[in-house]
Design goal:
Number of strands: 0
Helix content: 55-70%
Radius of gyration: 17 Å
Strand content: under 5%
Order of helices and strands: HHHHHHHHH
Length: about 200
């Protein structure tokens, strides 16, 4: 899963995935998600939960200072992350953090593009079930992790066990529109997790 952390000249141009049609793009994101173990899904979930504030801050400062070259859209943010990975190629911790943000941004883009398309919604649900399984490793898997700061972990500070981690992902992180999906409901039932389909 870390193969794209190779030197730039020896890896493909990953920004090319942004040119794919929605079906192909969502399939690529599913494959890049499921190839990892549950620990990778948790790291992606942490990246995803911190992605919103990062995007908002980037857009805010870009709007107010045109001299600062910051991304204003999700696609430009994905390209920005890839460029940052190149700049931090000698720093494994920074590169891994950026990798999780990259994967999280791809999932956000796939979700936005596929959630309202009937033929893609099953795939989006499958991706989110992976993230929920990753959150099932909370809180122990994140407690001593050195990649994330205390403020970045704060989103999950209330999670006391794996069941609560899964619930947080499904009921707070995942878009509400997916909570009635049969696959999501079946997974929640298998984990004895209540799904709030109303709020």
């Amino acid at each position: 899963m870390f193969s794209f952390l190779r030197k730039k000249e020896s890896r493909p141009d990953l920004s090319a995935v942004l040119a794919l049609d929605d079906t192909a793009f969502v399939r690529v994101v599913l494959n890049s998600t499921t190839i990892g173990p549950p620990g990778a899904w948790l790291m992606t979930a942490v990246g995803y939960e911190n992605l919103g504030p990062m995007l908002s801050a980037s857009q805010y400062f870009a709007d107010r200072n045109r001299d600062i070259n910051l991304p204003k859209t999700l696609d430009s943010f994905i390209r920005f992350i890839l460029n940052s990975i190149d700049k931090h190629s000698g720093d494994e911790i920074a590169s891994r953090r950026l990798m999780w943000f990259f994967q999280a941004a791809l999932i956000k883009r796939a979700t936005e593009r596929g959630i309202d398309q009937t033929d893609l919604k099953n795939t989006i649900a499958e991706i989110w079930i992976c993230l929920a399984k990753g959150c099932g490793l909370l809180p122990t898997a994140l407690a001593e992790n050195q990649l994330w700061s205390a403020s970045e972990k704060e989103w999950f500070s209330h999670v006391t066990d794996g069941n609560a981690g899964i619930s947080y992902c499904l009921n707070h992180m995942m878009p509400k529109a997916l909570r009635k999906h049969p696959s999501v409901q079946a997974f929640a039932d298998s984990e004895n997790v209540f799904l709030n389909v109303f709020f």
